Amino acid sequence: MAVSVCRYDKIAMRWSGDVRAELGDAVDFVLDGGPCQIGVESTIVDVTGEIPTGLRPGGVTREDLQAALGRPIAVHSTSRVRVPGLA
Question: Is pTM, for the whole model, over 0.85?
Answer without folding.
Answer: no
